[in-house]
UniProtKB/TrEMBL annotation:
Keyword field: Mitochondrion, Ribonucleoprotein, Ribosomal protein
Domain Ribosomal protein/NADH dehydrogenase stretches: 2-68
GO MF entries: structural constituent of ribosome
The family this protein is said to belong to: Belongs to the mitochondrion-specific ribosomal protein mL43 family.
InterPro entries for this protein: Ribosomal_mL43, Ribosomal_mL43/mS25/NADH_DH, Thioredoxin-like_sf
One Gene Ontology CC term in the entry: mitochondrial large ribosomal subunit
Entry keyword Ribonucleoprotein: yes
Organism of provenance: Gigaspora margarita
Subcellular location: Mitochondrion
Protein name per the record: Large ribosomal subunit protein mL43
Length: 101
């Protein structure tokens, strides 16, 4: 299996290079491989390693390692205010011309 090749050849050097990460391998009989990251802020991120090559699994593990665990869907509640005036000036209904049909 491709995943077992990754575990045998590349996981141990990755764990030695990144001592700040705890790596746990658990067997999942009759299921696809799964990479899961648990972050200190309580969040969890998991990515399936189904049908991935060892290089793609390395990218997935690096993505989870480099991620912070926070979600990026933050909304801004304040309107955007420009510091420069518009090139066209302030809009006024009296300055517009009626459309010709």
């Amino acid at each position: 299996m491709i995943t077992s090749e990754y575990l045998k050849t590349r996981l141990i050097p990755f764990a030695e290079k990144n001592p700040q990460i705890e790596i746990v391998v658990t067997p999942r009989p009759s299921k696809h491989p799964f990479v899961r990251g648990l972050y200190l802020n309580g969040r969890e991120k998991g990515i399936s390693a189904r049908n991935k090559t060892p290089e793609e699994i390395v990218e997935t593990v690096n993505l989870i390692r480099d991620n912070t665990g926070f979600k990026n869907n933050k909304r801004f509640k304040k309107p955007v205010i420009s510091t420069t005036a518009s090139v066209r000036g302030i809009w006024s209904p009296f300055k517009t011309q009626p459309h010709k049909i």
